[in-house]
């Protein structure tokens, strides 16, 4: 719509047809079904990502209070408190929760949008991009926290090599995460490209 406006004389934008309708009103009326389809798709997409964000928040919040290795019964402090890996675990866990919660709020903003034609031009795509980026960051942080927790649990086991267990687990666990990140980054790039670039910018 805005791409067409760029090549139309400004005075024609306010002209009315025989039915007394301006170009914008006519455009909105003729694309009403497309608008409804876009609203349905946006809500379905947002709902699926909301589910993922809810799960991550629940898991990481529980992991934060189920500290790897437990606590010292005398002092009540975590057993691995003075390990560097424990700090990495806490930081990654906290970042995952914050990023997921932020992503959830952004995605809720998509659900509560008015879904006007202008919203689909910039507002909704930008919200979707931001929400997805935060969600992907949360997933990466979750994987780091998972690695940190396993590292601490296996630290005191001297009967078997730590990396003989950590290596395969982290490698296998990284495969679906990598596939997800690559596919979502391509999806984000397509949204970004279609949002920033005008379809008839060369005219």
Structure characteristics:
single chain; 203 residues; mainly alpha; 6 helices; 69% helix; 0% strand; disordered C terminus
What does this protein look like?
With 203 residues, the protein is mainly α. Helix 3 runs antiparallel to helix 4 and helix 5 runs antiparallel to helix 6. The two termini are 14 Å apart. It contains 6 helices and no strands. The C terminus is likely disordered. It is elongated and about 85 Å long. It has one domain.
Give the helices and strands as they follow along the chain: HHHHHH
What is the 3D shape?
elongated
Number of domains: 1
Class by SSE composition: mainly alpha
Largest sheet: none
In DSSP terms (H or I, runs of 4 or more residues), the helix count works out at 6
Q: Tell me, rounded to a whole number, the average pLDDT.
A: 77
Low-confidence stretches: 198-203
Q: Kindly state the percentage of residues in helix.
A: 55-70%
Q: Roughly how many Å is the radius of gyration? A: 25 Å
Kindly report the oligomeric state of this protein. Answer: single chain
- What percentage of the residues does DSSP assign to strands (E)? under 5%
Can you count the beta strands?
Answer: 0
Spatial gap, N to C terminus: 14 Å
């Amino acid at each position: 719509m805005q791409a067409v406006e760029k090549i139309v004389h400004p005075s024609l934008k306010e002209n009315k047809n025989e039915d007394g309708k301006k170009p914008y009103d006519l455009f909105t009326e003729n694309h009403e079904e497309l608008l409804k389809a876009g609203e349905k798709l946006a809500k379905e997409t947002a709902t699926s990502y909301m589910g993922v964000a809810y799960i991550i928040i629940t898991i990481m919040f529980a992991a934060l209070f189920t500290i790897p290795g437990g606590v010292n019964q005398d002092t009540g402090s975590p057993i691995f408190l003075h390990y560097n890996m424990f700090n990495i675990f806490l930081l990654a866990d906290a970042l995952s929760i914050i990023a997921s919660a932020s992503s959830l709020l952004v995605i809720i903003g998509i659900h509560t949008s008015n879904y006007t034609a202008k919203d689909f031009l910039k507002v909704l795509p930008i919200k979707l991009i931001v929400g997805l980026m935060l969600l992907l960051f949360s997933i990466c942080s979750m994987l780091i926290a998972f690695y940190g927790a396993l590292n601490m649990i296996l630290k005191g086991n001297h009967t078997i090599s730590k990396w003989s267990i950590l290596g395969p687990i982290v490698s296998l666990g990284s495969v679906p995460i990598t596939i997800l990140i690559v596919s979502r980054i391509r999806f984000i790039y397509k949204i970004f490209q279609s949002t920033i670039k005008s379809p008839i910018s060369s005219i």
